[in-house]
Amino acid sequence: MGVLVPAGPSREPGLTRTSRLAVLVAAGAVYSWWVSSTTPFTSRADVAVAVGFVLMAVVAGASILRGGIGVNGQGVSSEALPDTPTLIADQPAARSRAWAAAFLFLLAVELFTYFAGSGNRHDFPTVSSLYDTAAQSQAAKAAIVFVWMALGWALFRRQPGVAGRADAGRP
Amino acid sequence: MTRSLILAAWAVGVVLLVSCEVLSVVTKRRYIGFVALLRRWTDGRLRLAAFFIGWMWLGWHFFAR
What we know:
The complex is a heterodimer. Chain A is an all-alpha fold. Helix content of chain A is 55%, strand content 0%. In chain A, helix 1 (17-36) crosses helix 5 and helix 2 (43-65) packs parallel to helix 5 (138-156). Chain A is globular and about 55 Å long. Chain B is built from three helices and no strands. Chain B has helices at residues 2-26, 34-41, 45-64. The longest helix of chain B has 25 residues, at 2-26. The chains are: A mainly alpha, B mainly alpha. At the A-B interface, helix 2, helix 3, helix 4 and helix 5 of A face helix 1, helix 2 and helix 3 of B.
């Protein structure tokens, strides 16, 4: 995944990208399993989730210090990362409308079920109630936590040279 | 019956999302993929901060409260 590529130009010698990825995935799996073992509305769950916040804040801070969240095109160039999309700004907004349509559809389903099913959540399951059902299995809950952490990671481990130009071609 | 219809609607939404990513891969990123979409939406520190707050809320809502 391109999102896991280090944002700064310097890379640690002796530690390949694959091994770093493996370490990250393993750490994420351990953390996810820990969070999934907690029960909501307990201080243990609060602490576990808060640790995730702190970890991601550290990632964000590290990215900022390395110029990874710059807005002036500083950092690694798009050419240096062939597995990541190049020149997002060159992609017309029309090419992301399918995503917008999909998210709007999901939002509509969520709103409909939320308002139509108050008092009858079984027949009108929202995302939260679907999650509650899935979270009865610790493995499923751990997988969801892992996806949540991966999403947070994706927010900060990005390609600043592209992100900084993303407004250029936008209508 | 109603539950089945709603679950089918959720499934359609998920299939739409997956289709968008598949379209991006098949067209060799001519159409934007999820990671690129995320980058576009979080371009700029204010937007990124807003997404980060949203991300934290998600975790708190689902796993802590």
